[in-house]
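Regression test attached.
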Amino acid sequence: MTASQWLPLAVLASSLLPGLLIFALPEERIGLRTALNLFGAVAKLTLVGVLLVGVQAGNTYSVGYTVLPGVDLMFKADALALLFVSLSSVLWLLTTLYAIGYLEGSPHRSRFFGFFSLCVTATMGIAMAANLFTFFVFYELLTLSTYPLVVHRGSGAALRGGTIYLAYTLGGGALLLTGIVWLHSLVGQVEFTHRGVLSPLSPHYADQLRMIFLLLIAGVGVKAALVPLHGWLPNAMVAPAPVSALLHAVAVVKAGAFGIIRIVYEIYGVEFAQSLNLLLPLAVAASVTIIWGSLRALAQDDLKRRLAYSTVSQVSYITLGVALFGPVGTIGGLVHLVHQGIMKITLFFCAGNYAETLGTHKVSEMNGAGRRMPATTLAFSIAALGMIGAPLTAGAVSKAWLSDGAQALGLEWVGWVLLASSLLNAAYFLPILYRVWLKPAPARWPQEHSAAQGWRETTWLLLLPPLLTAAATLAAGIYADSEFSPLAWAQLIARREYLTPVP
Amino acid sequence: MNDPVYDVAPWLVLLPLAWAGLAFVWGPGRGARLALAGTALQLLLTLRLAAELLSLGGRRHAVGGWGAPLGIDLAVDGLSMTMLLLTQAVAFAVFIYARAYFTDRSADGDGHGARNHFWPLAGFLLAAMNALYLSADLFNLYVTLELLGLAAVGLVAAGGNAAQVSAALRYLLVSLLASGAYLLGVALIYGSYGTVALSALPLMSADAPLAVALAAALMGVALLLKTALFPFHFWLPPAHGGAPAPVSALLSALVVKATFYLFLRLGLGLFAPLGETIAWLPGLLGSAAIFWGSWQALRAQRLKMLVAYSTVAQLGYLFLIFPLLAPDGLALQAGVMQALSHGLAKAAMFMTAGVFLQVSGRDAVADLAGVAGRLPVTLFAFGLAGVTLMGLPPSGGFLAKWLLIDAALAQGRWGWAAVVIAGGLLTALYVFRVVRQAFASTEARPPLAPVPRTLEWTAFALAAASVLLGLRGMEVLHLLDVGAAS
Amino acid sequence: MSSGLVYAVVGVLLFVLGAAGMLLLPHLLRKILAFNLLGSGAFLILVGLAQRDGGVDPVPHAMVLTGIVVAVAATALALALLRRLHALSGRTQLADESADE
């Protein structure tokens, strides 16, 4: 087996094996469990680093295994896969640190970290899947391995949230499977290929292909939380903070968005999808989601639910970018996949810190939290400003590319959607910032866990991850033009997708 | 290898008969060890036979050198080989489990009777099943069907309490009625064609005598009755849900598959031309079974009843293949894959139910809160078996579902594909009804009796095998492709 | 009407009678007797149809002998179970139990 074959497998194994070992560990082996977790995360980062350099140089990494005649389990680490893989593996390391601090002393930690690693493995599989069959295998694995994390606390609300989560995601999976098998029976196995594989098909099949597109997009749209398929996301917020942070802000919803990218660009091909008139409806669905999510976020007092609706809205920026026919919009969507991830995970880390340290879960309880927890609040503010699209942040970069992409197409209404969304983002984030920094703190907090004051407000394990991701939010904005920035990588992908010089 | 003494096929019948007899004489202690050794040997022999089959093609063996029509022929092809493999593999795991399960202090009250009678009856059961898969003529199949029924009824009744005896009697009467109908069918076939050898019988033609059509109807209904296809399923839940866990595992995983195999064999061979006119009927009944069984599983109060109704539903999938049988072979592959993965998963599921029962002394689904979460291995086993039943990747059940949907869509038969998809979602409802109990935080922490780890790990091994089968689809399909010996 | 056909027709009558008895009679002993009637019917048909051509065909006789052995064994098991059920619960009929108690 050559290096180009085992590297993708090793990326999977670096979270799968530690996960399986962790299941077998007794609860009290904290040290060994931590070591396994960190070893896996660091090993994965190293492997991803090697892959990044290789793909940059033009190498291909793929490996396959035949499951049924004409059906292969196949992995391919291409530029697009690595965009998602690197995002997830960096954030996995940070979230692991965070989770170790967050879950200190709570029960069922072996179970938690075991499933957590399985989720990451599933995410890697989704990212590196080379065909729809493989994509589906890991898509369902992600559903299954997330369920125990959603219901981790075991309360009535958690079980209810878990059931809703399953109802949506398994239903979506069923639609996706139908679409995939239908496509399979039409054209056999299709690999993800730049600029699509379906365009040579006779126009006779156009209607079937439209139906299949609808099924596939509805299937992945559940995880991407496209309105009206988003209902599970706010309910899944009953999960512990690290789960909400990594899985529901990054892995799960991004898996959906990533699926949309693969289907539009590498199954249908963006030109072909445009010729079937599929992109405009998709853009409309994304725009509706963007506005609807923001409107709902305004009405939430529970901080995590507000963030969840914000996710609903923000993930659809990616879909919108995909649906904007042309390289500029594509780059906007792709880069937002990364940017939204680092910003939203910061916000969830901070929400977890407020809840753990002060016991505040609601926006209305957060008055004066800034002076009580300055470091956390600083990180929160940077990420929130990034979400609004303030200059010098990652958010500004994605929004600029998206609206340029819309302009290039002459779609004026998309520009208005983006502007409206930014205003709504400001409307639900700025009041929080006003409360935490400028309002006086209450006499006592709902449930204060530690009396430490000033900058050492909580343990470093809870503090370090949000500060790092907040710094990354700034760095991705300020150094967007450097060689290995998310933007540069998105440009690389767009170049390979369109085979044209891109801006 | 040409020496008949070294031919594997007859030993697959003789071995279980031999150890069953000895186990009856020796009692459960030494008997169990002997049974395990015997089954391990059978498993090895089956593997060897499979290897022979792959390299040399289908096999035929004339018992005692007599040959048909007066003697008995044994024949193996790909289809029967896959079933033989499933039978020995599941039986071996269940026997390891059963040896640890039937201890002197069984919590569910079916200790002594079941412990004493399990091994001889299980041996006869295995001999009957192996003989059924190896049989090459209709009458011999009748005898094996009867032996299988008698052994299975004995196992259901072995616990000896009133509910079990009652369920066993119901099962016996159904089984006898069905065998009678089957026998009449055989008589009509013999009257029409003068032979009962499967290889010598012609395909039923359009101008076949009325007696043959009547025989098809009688034998079809008989086998559906024995396979418990909706609406003939009424006898199954009390029998499978009421028996001790290892017995339920054998019955649900293997015994109903044997009669399904025979239905399939006749549907592919002798009665294949009937398919064009009537194949929708088993498909329709199968769909009804999926919905009715899943609905009952959702409502069941007791875990073992839930699992038993799940069998009713899952058997439905097996019959969905009949309207879709086509030269591309997809539907047949789907059916065999479903039979194999359901066999492994359902045995595992009944075994986990047995663990929960032994640990807590209770069988209600609602009582699992506070129990299941403390037995992670068993919970995992249940979950993995559930993954197979739901048809989620990468399990064998998923491959079966994929092939079945593929077969349906390739022929543009949307309705059947929709049934498969909907059935998977219904399965998820009842599987997660159990799984969520394990995650519920509850004040109730009932005392748990210690159980041997063997119980937990054998269930886990079978469940894991049912999932991993999804990665070995090619091997199964290769084996299935082996045709019969001429 | 040849003697073989007579046997076959009587066999069909017995079989139908037996099947009806197994389905309709509530008492378990009657059900078991009905099963024996049904079995005898099937055997008669087997023998009857097989000797249509005049000569004696040994194969159906071998089959019927085997079948009788099986039927006797099945009857014995059914009777044993019935006695056991009677001893445990005093019942001689299958209760109309709802499947899930």
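Expected vs. actual: identical. The mean pLDDT of chain A is 90.
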